[in-house]
Every structure is written in C-alpha cells, then in structure tokens.
C-alpha cells in the first residue's frame, strides 16, 4: 500500500517536521495536493517508512536529518533556478 509523508522546514525551528501523513486514499490525496501546488515529491521508500511512524508535528529524527537536509537543499537549489 502506498504511503506518503509531508515534511516542512522553517528556518526559525530546530529541524524539519512532519506536517501530514497517510496511506492508501489519504496518501493519494496528499500526493495530488502536492502536485496541484507544485510542491516537490521525493520517492524514497526507506525514508518514507522511517518518517511514517512519526506523528504530524514531530521533528524528524536525527538519524535521517542529513538525508532530509540534502533533499531540502536540492529542492531549494532547483527552485532558485526557475
């Protein structure tokens, strides 16, 4: 079953945090919302499984901080090119 996790970063907070998550229909809806608003989607099964056990509002765990940070930097650099 498909799973989706939404992550947000705010420079005024100590780390990125989970904003939403879901599987099945909810995951499809989260993906559709992201697509409709040009929010980048990253497909990483292992990372999504790790983040999926967390609840919205929780900061991402330290063991995946570097991976998420690399993704966020890549997204930022890509958006700056547009």
Describe the structure in your own words.
The protein is of the alpha+beta class and 82 residues long. The protein has a single domain, classed as name from scop. 45% of the residues lie in helices and 16% in strands. It has a two-stranded antiparallel ribbon with strand order 1-2. The longest helix has 17 residues, at 65-81. The radius of gyration is 12 Å and the shape is globular.
Helix/strand-derived class? alpha+beta
Give the CATH H-level superfamily. secretion proteins EscU
**Number of separate domains:** 1
N-to-C span: 34 Å
Helix content: 40-55%
Main β-sheet description: 2 strands, antiparallel
Low-confidence stretches: none
CATH class: Alpha Beta
Please report the number of helical segments.
3
Please tell me what the overall shape is: globular
Strand content: 15-25%
Mean pLDDT: 92
Number of strands: 2
CATH architect. name: 3-Layer(aba) Sandwich
Strand order of the largest sheet: 1-2
Summarize, please.
The chain has 82 residues and is an alpha+beta fold. It contains three helices and two strands, in the order E-E-H-H-H.
Topology, please?
Layout (H helix, E strand, L loop, with lengths): L2 E6 L8 E7 L1 H12 L8 H8 L12 H17 L1
